[in-house]
Amino acid sequence: MSDHAIIIADTTGHITRWNSAAETLFGYPASRALGESLDLIVPEELRDAHWRGFFRAMANPEIRDLAADLPVRCADGTTRHVAGRLLVLSDGLGTAIGAMAIFTATGSTGIRPFG
């Protein structure tokens, strides 16, 4: 999995895990990303929609397949569409404990929900 960028956020949307592949793919070192809001990588024009969906998922976690080419704001200021999968993390009782995104640097899902 080391070639996959893995980002984990808590239920408030703050980054708690940022692996070395995320550093490479998005350009932010872990020291800059950890503890930051997901706004770090969510393009500004998509933030309202992102947070509505994020908090809806935290309130009512479901197992769904959410793979798509997602727009991500990189450290150099560019927005790239990157193949990714979004997952709500929940405990054994079904309570949300956070979210995880897994991205790959190559390939495409063929789905671009945000253009």
UniProtKB/TrEMBL annotation:
Domain PAS, residue spans: 1-45
Pfam families: PAS_4
PROSITE patterns, per database record: PAS (PS50112)
Protein known as: PAS domain S-box protein
Species: Brachybacterium hainanense
